[in-house]
Specification:
Elements (H helix, E strand, L loop, with lengths): L3 E4 L2 E4 L4 E7 L8 E7 L6 E6 L6 E3 L7 E6 L4 E6 L8 E8 L11 E2 L3 E6 L1
């Protein structure tokens, strides 16, 4: 069983930055690919980014490529999402998730956090 707790959300102006954190209570954190998803009001959950256990490979949705950076600290059992040049359309609840392998879909992920709200004002 893996528990994930996100933090770092908040209200920011367009063009600003936020860094989200996700702390995992996993005995073997390096067993998992870690991902971020987001869900805006009235919209479906959207894949944002993923990182493999070794930090050698990262993957991003086209909508955030070049603006967001996913990273992880395996010694701290934590994954991060650095978000720069934020836009109002980035407003959503952001979820951290853990998977046993590579995946771009919600169903590829086995464990989910409760989410943290990110609001970008124009």
């Amino acid at each position: 069983q893996v528990q994930l707790v996100e933090s770092g959300g908040g209200l920011v102006q367009a063009g600003g930055s936020l860094r989200l954190s996700c702390a995992a209570s996993a005995r073997s954190f390096t067993n998992y690919y870690m991902g971020w998803f987001r869900q805006a009001p009235g919209k479906e959950c959207e894949y944002v980014a993923q990182i493999d256990w070794s930090r050698a490979y990262t993957y991003y949705a086209d909508s955030v490529k070049g603006r967001f950076t996913i990273s992880r600290d395996n010694a701290k059992n934590t994954v991060y999402l650095q978000m720069n040049s934020l836009k109002p359309e980035d407003t959503a609840v952001y979820y951290c998730a853990a998977a046993y392998g590579f995946g771009l879909r919600e169903k590829d992920y086995n464990y989910w956090g409760q989410g943290t709200q990110v609001t970008v004002s124009s």
